[in-house]
Amino acid sequence: MKIISWNINGLRSINGQNPTRRFDEVFHENKLFPYIESQNPDIICLQETKAELEQIDEELRTPPDYSGWYHSCRRKKGYSGVATYSRIQAIAVNNLIGEERFDEEGRILEMDFGDFVLFNVYFPNGTSGDERVDYKLDFYDALFNHAESLRKSGKNIIICGDYNTAHHPIDLANPKQNEMNSGFLPIERKKLDWVESLGYVDVYRQFEEGPGNYTWWSNRARARENNVGWRIDYFFVNKEFMPRVKDCYHQTAIMGSDHCPIVLEIE
Length: 267
Fold this sequence. Notes:
The chain is an alpha+beta fold. It contains five helices and 16 strands.
């Protein structure tokens, strides 16, 4: 089974609904559906869709041969949002943690596939101030406490998406310069320590231990071209599930967003 996670930074942009201007030419280019066709994943999880379902043209809502689910932000239009496309029928789908302040922002899709539950999550960032850092940390608590309740009932757990936190200095190009910036604050990094202490595994690091492996690059100063990035997109699974994991990797050559897709292959 192949599962992809990708922060697309705007569904209507990457699927070609919104026009792209290149010099004097205006055109619509769907970069998402051809990518999905080329990769042939069983499930693809998208974050930061920035759209409600009714805002998306009907023919662009779901790629061929997939079923689609959306959870959009109710608090502010064009903000946050996640979508999951799957060729496998889920037993149940949930988009609520149980706290309105989190649920209204459209940040999760939880799908039960029987022996595992897949969470597609767009974690908050804290760049707009201390209040949002606190909100972000509280969101981590609420989500993983909910996941733990499922795990204790016998479910395996996969939690993928944009975590908006680089865990270790190796996970960003300029750690010293960013120690006081949200995304690499000590208190945020400790939250990922806590996630691991619960028994969850950062899958990518089981296959690639080296530096220079990032999933997000600023649009400024040719950061992607120079690989000045951050690794903030993850697959975490409960440690009991790791024997079924076959591979996990980044697709840094895939364009269309300021993030790249990440891929999990399981037995």
